[in-house]
Write a structure and sequence with these properties.
The complex is a heterodimer of chains A (479) and B (471).
Chain A: H1 2-18, H2 25-45, E1 51-56, E2 61-65, H3 69-88, H4 94-113, H5 117-126, H6 128-137, H7 143-173, H8 183-186, H9 196-210, H10 220-226, H11 229-261, H12 263-283, H13 287-307, H14 311-342, H15 358-372, H16 378-393, H17 395-420, H18 434-452, H19 455-474
Antiparallel strand pairs in A: 1-2
Helix pairs in contact in A: 1-2, 1-4, 2-3, 2-4, 3-4, 3-11, 3-14, 3-18, 4-5, 4-6, 4-11, 5-7, 6-7, 7-9, 7-10, 9-11, 10-11, 10-13, 11-13, 11-14, 11-19, 12-13, 12-17, 13-14, 13-16, 13-17, 14-15, 14-16, 14-18, 14-19, 15-17, 16-17, 16-18
Chain B: H1 3-6, H2 8-27, H3 31-54, E1 60-62, E2 67-69, H4 71-90, H5 100-117, H6 121-139, H7 145-176, H8 181-187, H9 193-210, H10 219-225, H11 228-253, H12 258-280, H13 286-307, H14 310-338, H15 352-355, H16 357-371, H17 377-391, H18 395-418, H19 434-452, H20 455-464
Antiparallel strand pairs in B: 1-2
Helix pairs in contact in B: 2-3, 2-5, 3-4, 3-5, 4-5, 4-11, 4-14, 4-20, 5-6, 5-11, 6-7, 6-11, 7-9, 7-10, 8-11, 9-11, 10-13, 11-13, 11-14, 12-13, 12-18, 13-14, 13-17, 13-18, 14-16, 14-17, 14-19, 14-20, 16-18, 16-19, 17-18, 17-19
Classes of the chains: A mainly alpha (479), B mainly alpha (471).
Chain lengths: 479, 471
């Protein structure tokens, strides 16, 4: 039942902020975010059964929420990153801003806990709306175009997925079976070989656009660039995981034979994204865009882990989702603070800032090193597991992945050097304030904890993945 | 239950039409009185329809097959009465339209109700005419050049389409020798050219009312010139009536031979969804936008008929309700924003989010429902239609529906984004009116309610469209 409380409090909280006085909306949102973290901790201790009640009986749709090892830590990522985003936002952005942030949290929590495909789809689209309005009203000059692009591109994928969802349910009723949208029941369907590729493509498109994976990232540069830093943090940290989560939760159990069939193609797609993101990150002069393309590259890496179709690789992807969310989210928010202080995002315009802002430089370096996969930090663990999964059968891709890892160090450190080091040209900025330390230290601590104790996640995730991966074995997958 | 009881909803409307006419005659020019009579008449008819529906009766056939009262016709009553009540409330303060406005709305609604229970071609034609004649006058109730143009255009094209419809019906009678839909089914096993022509012409006549591409040319001009309250009635009520009779006509009369009309309907549905949504993109006049988008939605409804299965019929009926709520809500906002202006363009919406946040929020919800975003009724309606299309093994319809939705997105999202632009400070802040607020609140509650917990309404439509002979 705690999952339901999580959702209910997030929804009620978002509505409460609407009725708060303008200046205290941030405080209210912060308190609600903290309560949600509290509920989440309770959930972590008692990961119960969730809830499963009839919703629209005529169509066999159930209100089925639950949390297992796959989703439990993504729920955690959501509550933590939302709280960080709230605390990193400005109070004068007003109550609507905090309403949308909390509504986004509600949608994401629902997305990561839905076990009924219809319910999953509802939340899948619900999360698009807050981002649309956040981009419309609280973003840069080209925010509206970015918002439009975000919504239309994502809906393009989602609507075809909707056809896929209904098609899967309809196929499940033939020749004799109940109409149901329960994921755990739909995995037993037998699809006609002529329709399966189409349904596979419909699901794949939706998840690949949301993530985004190359070449479906058209909305990404605009949206990441225009959104205010906390929203970019949520987009890259939480939203991008929704697409990856869809692969793990829905596509792997449903389409394992197709994954085996198309494995090489999918791996090539992921590896192109990996390389493309890295090269684009190297070329950017805008520090936010470097991180945006770095994130695209990392998502390619996570996708490689999934498409390796080995238990280790998938486990690595599961772990990396959470770790990457925390790291890249933190990085975007630090960059946002930097932008606020300097008024620019151009790497060339900043030099030697570590002289005036040593603390900020330290945290920047910490998150940058975490993303580039320094041993001891979680990026390394995730990437190690993914590469281990690849080495078994797909050595070529493992080698490419390792080479790109070197490039990751190059593009991340290039930004750090450019901004923080180098000749001190008298540019002075304000260092981190005491109020900001409150959220940045716990976030960094959490990253560090995952780096030295990855077992905290992997031990939980393994049983859940067993379910997916065992099923694969039953369907003839070589694991 | 006696036939008087079964027809009580219709009798109530007729009675209140007479009362309002009498009142207008005796008491003089009393707009308020007529409006109240109209409101009470339609509300009481609504209650009567609902209470008869809840007794879940067997279908009753009267007047030698001309009138069929069943759950289906009663549900159609509920929908069109909702549209009529909405029209009267939205036109509440508009004295300049004269005291005949509520009376004409009631007569038009009566025509829509007749379409719901028509069982033969005579009653079909009667319904179409009773529906249309008052609308010709209503379209011109704004005494401006645009209003006159709208009325005249609607009259001429409407008369033309009625002629086509009548010719088609005559050919059908010639080919089959019967007027009653139920007899058509058993008689229509020949492939005489007379029958083909009759069917094609009849469908064309109905498509005109429904605004299906390529019979849609009249829609933008008529919508732009007519007062918003009337446009609402055309967009919601007329569509319910025309869709209801289309479904009844085809699923009662020609259910044995769907191969004749199914593919044609399918192609028209896809064409309408795509063209309708494409045409809306460059428009700036909001009434025209809503009017053209209505075309897209007519295409969605046609999907339900074209699938020719039980799910399709039910999905179409279901879709009418969230669509209707969205139309009511959108026009309520348009009327509130317009104030005394004739037209509302997208730029009139600028700054509304800052000045009237609640109004803007309601408008957003309604627009998202049109666009079919989850947690609104529009999404559940589209989902039902998709189910119907795929159960009928017609993925083409499903893809058309999705493509149409995508094309329409831009048209729905531009007004929404305009709400957040910096507004023109010289414009008066739109003020709330009680009647407008009532319509808007009901529409928004209905939209969200259908999106979050559609189960009761799904039950309602499933009970109403029990055409067991479809499968």
């Amino acid at each position: 039942m705690l999952v339901v409380w999580l959702l209910a409090v997030a929804l009620a909280g978002s509505l409460i902020t609407l009725f708060m006085p303008r200046q205290s909306a941030k405080v209210a949102a912060g308190i609600i975010g903290a309560i949600l973290i509290g509920i989440y901790v309770a959930l972590l201790m008692h990961p119960g059964q969730g809830v499963n009640v009839r919703w629209i009986p005529a169509w066999g749709i159930r209100f089925h929420l639950g949390s297992d090892g796959l989703s439990l830590f993504l729920l955690g990522l959501t509550v933590v990153m939302t709280e960080v985003a709230i605390l990193a936002s400005k109070a004068e952005w007003g109550r609507m801003y905090y309403f949308w942030i909390l509504f986004l949290e509600f949608g994401s929590l629902g997305l990561f806990s839905a076990l009924d495909l219809f319910l999953f789809y509802i939340f899948w689209e619900v999360v698009l709306i807050p981002i649309f309005f956040l981009l419309t009203s609280w973003s840069g000059a080209k925010g509206r175009r970015a918002a439009m692009k975000w919504l239309i591109m994502n809906l393009f994928g989602s609507l075809f997925m909707l056809i896929g969802i209904v098609a899967v349910a309809v196929i499940h009723t033939q020749p004799a079976g109940p109409l149901t949208f329960e994921i755990s029941q739909l995995v037993n369907i037998h699809m006609d070989a002529r329709v399966t590729p189409w349904i596979f493509a419909a699901f794949f498109l939706a998840f690949a656009i949301k993530a985004p994976l190359w070449p479906f990232h058209g909305w990404m540069p605009d949206a990441y660039g225009e959104a205010p830093a906390p929203v970019t943090g949520l987009l890259a940290g939480v939203m991008s995981k929704a697409g990856i989560y869809g692969f793990l939760r829905i596509m792997l159990p449903l389409f394992f034979p197709e994954f085996v069939q198309y494995q090489t193609g999918l791996l090539i797609l992921a590896v192109i994204g990996l390389i493309y993101g890295a090269f684009m990150a190297l070329r950017q002069t805008d520090m936010k865009m470097v991180t945006a393309y770095a994130s695209l590259s990392h998502l390619g890496m996570i996708a490689l882990g999934i498409f390796s179709l080995t238990r280790v690789g998938i486990l690595g992807a599961t772990f990396q989702m959470v770790a990457h969310g925390l790291m890249v989210g933190g990085l975007f928010i630090i960059l946002g603070l930097l932008e606020q202080r300097t008024g620019s995002r151009d790497i060339a315009a900043m030099h030697g800032l570590n002289a005036s802002a040593p603390r900020m430089a330290a945290y920047f370096l910490f998150f940058a090193l975490a993303t580039l996969g320094l041993p001891g930090l979680p990026g390394f663990v995730g990437e190690y597991l993914i590469i281990q999964g690849l080495v078994a059968h797909e050595v070529v891709f493992a080698v490419i992945a390792v080479i790109v890892l070197v490039m990751a160090a190059w593009y991340m450190l290039r930004v750090f050097q450019g901004i923080m080091q180098g000749p001190d040209k008298g540019q002075k900025i304000l260092d981190l304030k005491a109020g900001q330390v409150w959220w940045i230290v716990p976030l960094a601590g959490l990253v560090l904890l995952l780096g030295v104790w990855p077992n905290g996640i992997t031990a939980h995730a393994v049983p859940s993945l067993y379910h997916a991966v065992h099923l694969l074995a039953a369907k003839g997958g070589g694991v | 239950m006696s036939s008087f009881h079964l027809m009580l909803p219709e009798y109530l409307v007729v009675g209140f039409v007479l009362l309002a006419l009498l009142g207008n005659m005796l008491v003089g020019n009393r707009f308020r009185l007529a409006s109240w009579l109209g409101l009470i008449g339609l509300l009481s008819s609504f209650v009567a329809s609902a209470s008869i529906w809840s007794k879940s009766l067997e279908p009753h056939v009267m007047v030698s097959g001309g009138i069929v009262v069943d759950n289906y016709s009663l549900l159609v009553n509920l929908f069109v009465l909702l549209a009529g009540i909405g029209a009267i409330l939205l036109g509440w303060g508009e004295r300049r339209w004269g005291q005949e406005f509520p009376v004409l709305v009631m007569i038009s609604v009566l025509g829509m109700m007749i379409l719901g229970l028509a069982g033969n071609t005579i009653v079909l034609f009667l319904g179409i005419e009773v529906l249309s004649l008052p609308l010709y006058i209503l379209a011109a109730s704004e005494h401006t050049a645009a209003g006159g143009e709208a009325g005249l255009k609607y009259l001429l094209l409407g008369a033309f389409s009625s002629g086509i419809l009548l010719f088609g019906l005559a050919l059908l009678y010639g080919a089959l020798g019967s007027l009653s839909f139920i007899h058509f089914a058993s008689l229509a096993n020949t492939t005489s050219p007379l029958l083909w022509a009759g069917l094609a012409l009849t469908l064309s006549g109905i498509f005109f009312k429904l605004g299906i591409v390529p019979f849609h040319m009249w829609v933008p001009d008529v919508y732009e010139g007519s007062p918003s309250a009337v446009t609402q009635l055309m967009a919601f009520g007329t569509k319910v009536g025309a869709a209801a009779i289309l479904l009844r006509f085809l699923d009662f009369g020609f259910y044995l031979s769907p191969q004749w009309w199914g593919p044609a309907l399918g192609y028209l549905a896809v064409l309408t969804m795509i063209v309708g949504n494409l045409l809306a993109l460059p428009q700036t006049d909001l009434k025209t936008v809503t009017g053209i988008l209505r075309l897209g939605h007519a295409g969605f409804l046609l999907v339900g008929v074209a699938t020719h299965n039980l799910d399709g019929a039910r999905a179409m009926l279901f879709y009418l309700l969230p669509y209707g709520f969205a139309v009511l809500g959108a026009f309520a906002v348009l009327i509130l924003v317009a104030g005394n202006q004739d037209t509302v363009t997208i730029s009139d919406l600028k700054g509304l989010a800052a000045r009237r946040p609640l109004m803007a929020a309601f408008f957003i919800i309604v627009m998202l429902s049109f666009a079919g975003i989850p947690l609104t009724g529009g999404f559940v309606g589209k989902f039902y239609l998709l189910q119907a299309a795929l159960f009928a093994n017609q993925p083409g319809l499903a893809i058309g529906l999705v493509v149409g939705t995508l094309l329409g997105l831009g048209a729905y999202l531009r007004p929404v984004q305009a709400l957040f632009s910096a507004g023109d400070e010289s414009r008066a802040v739109p003020s709330w009116t009680l009647s407008g607020a009532v319509v808007l609140v009901v529409a928004v509650i209905g939209t969200i309610g259908l999106g979050v917990y559609p189960t009761p309404v799904v039950h309602l439509v499933n009970q109403s469209a029990n055409f067991f002979w479809l499968h």
